[in-house]
Design a protein that fits this description.
The structure holds 2 protein chains of 2 kinds. By secondary structure, chain A is of the alpha/beta class. Chain A has helices at 10-18, 28-40, 73-84, 104-107, 120-133, 173-177, 183-198, 220-231, 241-247, 252-269, 285-288, 307-328, 341-357, 365-372, 380-398, 453-464; strands spanning 4-5, 8-9, 20-24, 44-48, 89-93, 112-115, 137-143, 146-152, 406-410, 419-425, 441-446, 470-474, 481-483, 508-513, 518-526, 537-538. The chains are: A alpha/beta, B alpha/beta. Chain B: Residues 20-339 form the THIF-type NAD/FAD binding fold domain.
């Protein structure tokens, strides 16, 4: 005899009041999810988010009001939810889920974990914690009109890392420094420039002309021309950009003339570059001064200024940033933030000046912010739909019906079979997944004489393989400890080369992350032949390069599931991404790839290399 | 209490630009301006109504009228998130007003405690769009007919347990725009880069293409004739949710309420009987719709309200902004299977 409590069977309704669930993230999806959980009857909910409320959240994160801007998302979400369900038992943490306090024991408290995240690093981490604790995880993501939900259960389904996800799009150094051809190249350059002048200087973020550009074949006659061009205000290469800027007192006009006149003239001497390309045209401050600018009306941000307008914007923002840096003291470093007006102004101005030089249409601050800040457009309704689906999948799990769980994709338009929401059977785990396989193993190609231990730790193990606190032992018969997760213990090793420890072709490293209960065997493949700007390659994957120009928007088969992909702000990464183009996909269900990119990135939605195989439509497998 | 919005101001204020930033980046400034000039009527503040209200208020319409004559019961507090737990006995629209308004002070939110059926015809004419939830079939048909005569967009929707639907009628000649990627032709002085010498699709450059679509009335949509062999052949591709909708609407008409979990045994029998009657009247076999749905169509499930409310809310936004292809003309959601289908029912 069926006994209902509201819409639910009584047994299910009862279990909701006793179980505990964890919601990771209290943003767009998180707010909607919290509301659904509480109204459905879940009594014990823990929610965690490290972020605070921003005004741009208010169009969709409905548990927050204007008066809450600046406060903790998790905390305010809890308070608002309690308003309409005072009997719910909600615990809020204003914290990062990657904090070691949230260990496997912590995760085991819950019958279910639901992600509502916006970055890959956290998703990877929660994936591993749930595998370690053997707790089902419901993963989800949205971008614009698109969304996806899926269920991860150890041993039964793919884990989050079973399928390779496309990494951030990067551009070759020479494109950024010498031959930009798209606005995005100029924007990346402008962000590098910000760091070189005001922030943390990074050898991978050079802005000066690149004389080692492979396209160039130097003739001796050219040397004289180059020498003259580089004489102005000191040798471009030997003094750091920041030191040079400081020596001029951050004089905006001097900066302007060096970056937009002298350096461009230098580029012009590299004539091989301009044989098949339109050559850049240098700017001169004196000639531009006081030229007419058309009056502006309407939203300031959406206007495209004239050239002199951007000159002035450059000047003003440099002066403001200069005072900011002077206030902070001698070795001050600013961190670029799209929501910091002078920082955003600076990038807008510098990028536009460069775009003009390279014959590109200039862009409004609004558009530059999208690209520079990697903003993913977001609305309430998409998040509402996805959060609803998350709870429905959760109920299946709690009813003991995990086999009926599905991956569900939300399209913008119905597919050929009239489906707007497409459920797909969950895939089994990948046999050689480097996370959930029984003895995970990878092979990494690098140059043992040129790679330092710190790079191994930060770029490879943490960034690429998602570890939070790796411990590395060399399998050399002696168990030599290369990296210890204990602070300071192996700091002395950081700047030594791997070869200094006897690591060579064929060496094996045992890497453990005890928090994630994860052990990875890394095989080292030594090579002297890596591409420019590439520090390492994971064997078995397509190289991490910018793809060729897209020709068919219909081939989209991924959506972005997030943006922040490392704990560092977006400027310190080489990669920036093109905003999503929202197109109707009149095809069968697609496999969704999540790509995490730093801070609100719109990840590149066109897959590179071989398209991932299409998810199977449930109807073809079920008997109706 | 509303913050001042510049009247008839073609320019969006800096405050609105900051708050709506993430959606303006999706659907553009023009669409946002149209939303901001729209007036919407929402009837029924149950689970689905609350979701639609939230979505429209967050989107930034000019005015939203919450129309509901029902009183808040103990169940109402569990069903939706706008009604405070202390509001029992109060009118549901009025009880929802404060929280609804707080979602976005820039929208004018109003509560109206009348019955929909008691409203005179010209009441509806002040709105750009009307959204009906929890209404009887006859009422919906009447309002739909009246509104479409005056070019007012009509939306209907309901939730029954794990199932939900939405219907839309945007008129016989609804025009809208779609954003398509621009194909850039090769030009000697191409202005988006020195290298743009070949024709290519630049994902950053788009163009707006104008389109039209035609919608039928709710009456026509519900009274599709299934007697001919041709239509019967089309049954294989027809979502059965359509027939389930008929059953549930008839239950509502006959009983004056929706299936009640507290009366599960009796109501299940009634539902079975109505299922048989409805299918027979359409000259279809009662096997078409199995008994399965019966125990899953009681009450309004919050996550199902969220899904349907999200789709419905977005359809209203699209229609008010006249941007992007509308779903034509039904959306059916099956919360047990996770299936969401768009299909057209009506005369060809």
């Amino acid at each position: 005899m069926v006994h209902l409590v509201g819409s639910l069977r009584k047994e299910l309704a009862d279990s909701l009041s006793t179980c505990s669930v964890l919601v990771v993230g209290a943003g767009g999806i998180g707010c909607e999810l919290l509301k659904n959980l509480v109204l459905t009857g879940f009594k014990n909910i823990e929610v965690i988010d490290l972020d605070t409320i921003d005004v741009s959240n208010l169009n969709r994160q409905f548990l927050f009001q204007k008066k809450h801007v600046g406060k903790s998302k998790a905390q305010v979400a809890k308070e608002s939810a309690l308003q309409f369900c005072p009997s719910a038992n909600i615990t809020a943490y204003h914290d990062s889920i990657m904090n070691p306090d949230y260990n496997v024991e912590y995760f085991r408290k819950f019958i279910l974990v639901m992600n509502a995240l916006d970055n890959r690093a956290a998703r990877n981490h929660v994936n591993r914690m749930c595998l370690a604790a053997d707790i089902p995880l419901i993963e989800s993501g949205t971008a614009g009109y698109l969304g996806q939900v899926t269920v991860i259960k150890k041993g039964m389904t793919e884990c989050y890392e079973c399928q390779p996800k496309p990494t951030q799009k990067t551009f070759p150094g020479c494109t950024i420094r010498n031959t930009p051809s798209e606005p995005i190249h100029c924007i990346v350059w402008a962000k590098y420039l910000f760091n070189q002048l005001f922030g943390e200087e990074d050898a991978d973020q050079e802005v000066s002309p690149d004389t080692a550009d492979p396209e160039l074949a130097w003739n001796p006659e050219d040397t004289a021309a180059r020498a003259t061009a580089s004489e102005k205000d000191g040798d471009i290469k030997r003094i750091s950009t920041k030191e040079w800027a400081r020596s001029t007192g951050y004089d905006p006009v001097k900066l302007f003339n060096k970056l937009f006149k002298d350096d461009i003239m230098y580029l012009l001497t590299m004539d091989k570059l301009w044989k098949k390309r339109k050559a850049p045209t240098p700017l001169d401050w004196q000639h531009l001064e006081n030229s007419e600018d058309s009056p502006v009306s309407g939203l300031k941000d959406q206007q495209v200024l004239g050239l002199w307008g951007y000159c002035q914007l450059f000047q003003h923002s440099v002066e403001t940033l200069r005072s900011q840096i002077q206030e902070k003291g001698e070795s001050a470093e600013l961190v670029w933030d799209k929501d910091d007006p002078p920082a955003m102004d600076f990038v807008t101005a510098a990028a536009n000046l460069r775009m003009h030089i390279f014959s590109m249409n200039m862009k409004s601050r609004f558009d530059v912010k999208s690209m520079a800040g990697n903003i993913i457009p977001a609305i309430a309704t998409t998040n509402a739909v996805i959060a609803g689906l998350i709870v429905l999948e959760g109920l299946k799990i709690l009813s003991g019906e995990i086999e009926s769980c599905r991956s569900i994709f939300l399209n913008k338009c119905p597919n050929l079979r009239k489906k707007l929401l497409v459920p797909c059977i969950l895939d089994p785990p990948s046999a050689n997944c480097y996370v959930c396989a029984s003895k995970p193993e990878v092979t990494v190609k690098l140059n043992v004489h040129k790679t330092v231990v710190l790079t191994l730790q930060d770029r490879i193990l943490k960034e690429r393989f998602g570890m939070v606190a790796p411990d590395v032992q060399i399998e050399d018969g002696k168990g030599t400890i290369l990296i210890s997760s204990e602070e300071g213990e192996t700091e002395a090793n950081n700047n030594k080369f791997l070869s200094d420890f006897g690591i060579r072709n064929g060496s094996r490293l045992q890497v453990d992350d005890f928090l994630q209960d994860y052990t990875l065997l890394v095989n080292v493949l030594h090579t002297e032949e890596l591409e420019r700007d590439v520090e390492f390659e994971v064997v078995g994957e397509a190289p991490d390069k910018a793809p060729p120009p897209q020709s068919k928007p219909e081939e989209v088969n991924s959506i972005t599931n997030g943006n922040k992909d490392s704990s560092q702000p977006s400027t310190s990464s080489k990669a920036l991404n093109v905003p999503l183009a929202h197109v109707c996909i009149p095809t069968m269900s697609r496999k969704v790839i999540s790509s995490g990119v730093t801070h609100e990135a719109a990840a590149h939605i066109y897959s590179r290399g071989t398209p991932l195989r299409e998810a199977q439509d449930v109807d073809t497998l079920l008997v109706e | 209490m509303i913050d001042t919005i510049e009247k008839e101001d073609p320019v969006i204020s800096e405050e609105e630009a900051a708050q709506y930033d993430r959606q303006i980046r999706l659907w553009g400034l023009d669409a946002q301006k149209r939303l901001r000039g729209s007036r919407v009527l929402l009837a029924g503040l149950g689970g689905l109504g609350a979701e639609v209200a939230k979505n429209l208020i967050l989107a930034g319409v000019k005015k939203l009228t919450l129309l509901d004559h029902e009183k808040v019961t103990e169940d109402s507090c569990r069903a939706q998130f706008l009604v405070p737990v202390t509001a029992q006995g109060q009118n549901r629209a009025q009880a929802s007003l404060e929280r609804a308004q707080n979602l976005n002070p820039m929208v004018e939110v109003q509560a109206d405690t009348d019955k929909v059926e008691d409203k005179p015809d010209d009441f509806f004419l002040q709105f750009d769009a009307v959204c009906l939830t929890g209404c009887s079939k006859d009422l919906m048909v009447r309002v739909d007919q009246l509104c479409s005569q005056h070019n007012i967009k009509v939306f209907c929707g309901d939730i029954h347990g794990y199932y939900g639907y939405m219907f839309s009628n945007l008129g016989k000649e609804y025009s809208y725009v779609e954003e398509k990627p621009k194909v850039v032709k090769a030009a000697p002085d191409s202005s988006d880069g020195p290298e743009a010498k070949k024709a290519k699709v630049d994902p950053n450059e788009t163009t707006m293409v104008k389109k039209t679509a035609s919608f039928c009335s709710l009456k026509e949509a519900l009274e599709v004739d299934w007697t001919s062999e041709k239509t019967k052949a089309g049954l294989k591709k027809t979502p059965l949710d359509y027939f389930m909708l008929h059953v549930l609407l008839k239950f509502r008409t006959d009983k004056g309420r929706d299936p009640d979990p507290l009366a599960f045994p009796e109501d299940s029998l009634v539902l079975k009987q109505i299922r048989d009657d409805v299918l027979e009247a359409k000259t279809l076999s009662s096997d078409l719709l199995s008994d399965d749905f019966i125990s899953y169509c009681f009450s309004e499930m919050s996550p199902v309200c969220a899904v349907v409310g999200g789709v419905l809310g977005q359809e209203v936004v699209k229609a008010l902004s006249q941007r992007d292809a509308p779903h034509r003309n039904f959306f059916f959601f099956d919360g047990r299977k996770g299936n969401g289908v768009v299909d057209y029912f009506g005369p060809n």
